[in-house]
């Protein structure tokens, strides 16, 4: 453990492996694990040389005032722990509602409960808890010594599947809530130190009364299971409602060779929603997360499981016949309410393709690749023609670029770029910010376009945006979109 806790200024910490500055390999970094100070916990190898890097932090650097001061660098050897893996959890004795935890000497397990819980590769410890009585329970680390993340997985050991997770519900500590637990059900509880921090504290399990849902049902109810899926076509459907005990299902028909694009936008602080695509027929697999369970390996055609304010999926019908696809909006975990409101956008069900995708994007720091799309035919000088891009990193700036031609993808910074540089143009003068939703929508700026687009011309577009990779500021690109203007 390498802590700077107790220093007199805001500091950050990095650890490198090697023996000379020109050949060091980065191992880990941390900022604000204990207040404004930093701490790292990670395994080491005997006789291996390490470099510890210290720095002060100020958001206004290098133009603003600088704050630095004195502190103490402490390097401790921590005792090994027994519940460092999902296979060796500490079991809650019957009737016990709290147990101490310490991630100080833990190592990252990489366990995500099938992919649905965002715990990242951070030091973590595990517990096993069985409900003595049924009800709604919360799993909390409030009051711990540092920043934590809590994930709750339904089932035993490493076969348990993610049920709920949380980060920063009580200051920088966590409260994960699970509704409708039955007596005798067993859960695997995972406590991690955020960004390599090594907090200790008390893991508490307690019943709670969830707040009432303040939202009314939408007009598509009842569409709670696969055989109640409501048919939809291309368009945007506003103010739909998904509940803790009431997922939403929709049926769409995708023509041969067409790509279906499904987007939902919502406020993640109210509750987290996920997105799944299921085949309507032709498979013996269960349909829906209630029967198949959550996560990416549950038999669904595709799943979007981010911890952001949006989810996006696309699916290509490679067959020669129309294909019926079921769209599930899944209530994953509760925030402030056991329900959430969302806007749903569909493209890909009409006979005519709205733009042609090209150049698959690399994932950005949101965890998924950015998708550029429109929902209407590209008619020249149409003031309502709107471009959309998501998912993006939060509060990320970007702009649209275009070209008459394309090239094989080349890697620039953290993204894949596929526009021909010989005719490359920046179509949008003002930067657009993705804000708290990690998404942008903007009208095509006909008046500011650097070239006059004529009917019958095909132009190719990508969205460039700022991104951060391992603490280093860089850039990324969305997937490309080719448009034949009418």
Tell me briefly what this model is.
1% of the residues lie in helices and 43% in strands. The chain has 486 residues and is an all-beta fold.
CATH superfamily of the largest domain: Immunoglobulins
- Helix share of residues? under 10%
Number of helices: 1
Q: Give the overall silhouette.
A: globular
Would you state the CATH class of the largest domain?
Mainly Beta
Oligomer: single chain
* Main beta sheet: 7 strands, antiparallel
Percent of residues in beta strands? 35-45%
Quote the distance from N terminus to C terminus.
63 Å
Number of domains: 4
The CATH architecture term of the largest domain is Sandwich
As for the CATH topology of the largest domain, it is Immunoglobulin-like
Q: Note poorly predicted spans.
A: 59-64
Q: Would you count the extended β strands for me?
A: 35
Average residue-wise pLDDT: 85
SSE class? mainly beta
Radius of gyration: 25 Å
């Amino acid at each position: 453990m390498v802590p700077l806790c107790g220093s007199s200024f805001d500091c950050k910490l990095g650890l490198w492996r090697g023996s000379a500055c020109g050949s060091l390999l980065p191992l880990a970094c941390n900022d604000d694990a204990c207040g404004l100070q930093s701490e790292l916990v990670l395994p080491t190898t005997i006789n291996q040389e390490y470099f510890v890097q210290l720095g002060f932090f100020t958001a206004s650097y290098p133009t603003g005032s600088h704050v630095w001061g004195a502190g103490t660098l402490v390097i401790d050897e921590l005792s090994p722990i027994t519940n460092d893996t999902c296979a060796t959890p500490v079991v809650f004795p019957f009737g016990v509602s709290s147990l101490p935890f310490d991630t100080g000497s833990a190592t990252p397990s990489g366990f995500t409960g099938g992919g649905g819980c965002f715990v990242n590769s951070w030091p973590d410890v595990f517990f096993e808890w069985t409900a003595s009585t049924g009800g709604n329970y919360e799993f909390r680390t409030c009051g711990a010594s540092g920043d934590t993340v809590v994930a709750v997985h339904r089932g035993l050991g490493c076969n348990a599947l993610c049920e709920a997770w949380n980060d920063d519900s009580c200051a920088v500590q966590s409260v994960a809530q699970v509704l409708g637990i039955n007596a005798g059900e067993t859960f695997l509880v995972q406590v991690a130190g955020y960004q390599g921090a090594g907090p200790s504290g008390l893991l508490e399990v307690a019943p709670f009364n969830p707040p009432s849902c303040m939202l009314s049902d939408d007009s598509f109810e009842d569409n709670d299971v696969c055989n109640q899926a409501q048919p939809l076509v291309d368009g945007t459907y506003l103010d739909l409602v998904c509940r803790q005990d009431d997922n939403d299902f929709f049926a769409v028909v995708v023509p041969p060779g067409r790509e279906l694009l499904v987007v939902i936008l919502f406020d993640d602080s109210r509750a987290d929603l996920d997105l799944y695509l299921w085949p309507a027929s032709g498979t013996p697999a269960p349909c829906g997360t209630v029967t198949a369970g959550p996560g990416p390996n549950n038999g669904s055609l595709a799943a979007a499981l981010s911890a952001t304010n949006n989810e996006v999926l696309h699916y290509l019908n490679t067959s020669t016949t129309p294909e019926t696809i079921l769209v599930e909006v899944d209530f994953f975990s509760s925030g402030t309410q056991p329900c959430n409101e969302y806007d749903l956008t569909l493209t890909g069900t009409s006979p005519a393709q709205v733009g042609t995708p090209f150049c698959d994007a690399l994932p950005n720091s949101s965890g998924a690749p950015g998708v550029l799309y429109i929902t209407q035919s590209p008619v020249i000088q149409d003031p309502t023609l709107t471009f959309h891009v998501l998912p993006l990193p939060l509060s990320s700036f970007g702009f649209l670029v275009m070209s008459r031609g394309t090239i094989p993808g080349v890697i620039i910074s953290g993204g894949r770029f596929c526009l021909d540089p010989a005719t490359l143009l920046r179509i949008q003068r003002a930067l657009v910010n993705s804000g708290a939703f990690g998404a942008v929508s903007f009208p095509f700026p006909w008046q500011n376009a650097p070239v006059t687009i004529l009917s019958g011309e095909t132009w190719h577009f990508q969205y460039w945006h700022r991104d951060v990779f391992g603490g280093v500021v860089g850039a990324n690109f969305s997937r490309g979109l080719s448009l034949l203007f009418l």
